Amino acid sequence: MSMPPPQPDNSSALPFPDWMRSVQTRLDAALGRYLPPAEAIPARLHQAMRYASLNGGKRVRPLLVFAAGALSDAPLPRLEAVASAIELIHSYSLVHDDLPCMDNDVLRRGRPTCHVEYDEATALLVGDSLQSLAFDIVAREDFGDSRRQLEMLRLLARASGSCGMAGGQAIDLESVGKSLNQPELELMHALKTGALIRAAVLLGSLCGMALGAAEHEALDRFAKRAGLLFQVVDDILDCTASTATLGKTAGKDAATAKPTYVSLLGLERARELAADLRQQALGSLTIFGQASQRLIELADFITQRKF
Q1: Would you state the pLDDT for residue 300?
Q2: Is 3 inside a domain boundary?
Q3: Which pLDDT score, from 0 to 100, does residue 257 have?
């Protein structure tokens, strides 16, 4: 008989690496349940959906969901549902970003991208299907408050659409070969990368007891700084890490003349910006005291990650 996945311990008692692995294990098990079985018709599409979603990765966004849920004593089933939805949106965005009409990449998380492993039309349908499944998961979960559930659906939709992730990708494509100033670059990445990270944090907190206005505002500040921090570090890694380490094509941004924090500021100033964003993010959490320990650890993890 297989053992159930360990319960994520959002207290500071469990060492961070162990807590992280427990959440990742629980998230993968939840995704395995939510995704259609590989043999269900249309089997090829369902196999490709599982290929694109159950392929490892750091699962930073689900980790943020669970860490933020600790602030509101959120029940695990709700966190599993929201974390799965967020990760499915992220997976869909990666599948579409890798398509020939977008970034035209052939490697993702150390494996062939979805359109390479299957085909371009299947990859397009995979992204569409993962996105709709994400909303289905949030819509069917019992959050105990229908008005809050509608707020959560709206937050996820806005983070995913033209005022969020998709809009940021559109700006990114339009900016190839152009020079952006820092506010323009920050807006692009606040949408492309930051919006879904912000949604992960806020949705995690909404899974439990309502936070006060001051706490919600502080958490929102943290989420916005953490989202930009993630992108700055991503830009740094793109020009300093190898393809084998990253699991995707290294140096792609420079090769395609995409504006990045490194191309705008230089490597050392980009690193200084990352350090400053980390401090701003951590400063936003002081209102929560020890309860924010997992968010603090995740901010450090984002800053120090090697891939």
Answers
A1: 96
A2: no
A3: 75
